[in-house]
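Example 3.2
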Amino acid sequence: MNLESDIALAHRLADAARAAIRPHFRSGLASERKPDATPVTLADRAAEEAMRRILKAEVPRDGVIGEEFGEDAGSTTRAWVLDPIDGTSGFLAGRPLFGTLIALVVDGWPVLGLIDQPILGERWLGVTGRPTTLNGSPARTRACRALAEATIATTGPHYFDQHQGDHFMALAAKTDYRRMVMGGDCYNYAMLASGHLDVVCEANLKLHDWAALVPVVEGAGGTMADWNGEPLHQGSDGHVLALGDPARLEDVVEALACAH
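Structure, written as tokens:
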């Protein structure tokens, strides 16, 4: 695998998405509802189309999996996984906490991930075996001596069903829950990778929601897993944990299992 070529391609994809998104931010852009009731805008579609055009021209044999236009199977073991605007609700609310997610998945495992915040001009790049960077400078998670000192984040309680919510609250109760962060989508994982959060816990995520996050978080010194503590791969069930300090993984999994 030519990592340097793939990294350069990921940056070009992010640049193209950024150019498609920026003119629409805080523009009063209308949205539609997808079948799953989540919002989608012209900006989501334009950004994914821009990235797909580049991939078709440069790596036509690779697969593409995108939030807005589904999967195009490739003839290699590689797939580019795209979420043009992760956090469309935040985008529509004028909050610059959404992001473009770009991942390269090989044999079902994420090996390259990029989180781009097009309004703030922040870009995290994670590559297996390399340190994560934010705009070219190293990004590092922070140590967390005890779960009771951890700051936890999640996009929102409405993304959990009742059972999942009970387990999340069992975990949150063992953290410094007065500092709990709600909202933020992929930006929470970027903040964890840069040492500002300790735990992110979510459920019902799709591959395009989390694939790019794994190399970013792990290259910054953190770890990502499902709610059982198992590594994330293309067949994972959408229960996602991110921890800035891998030493707390056992504590978090144990706390999640404590719901009554």
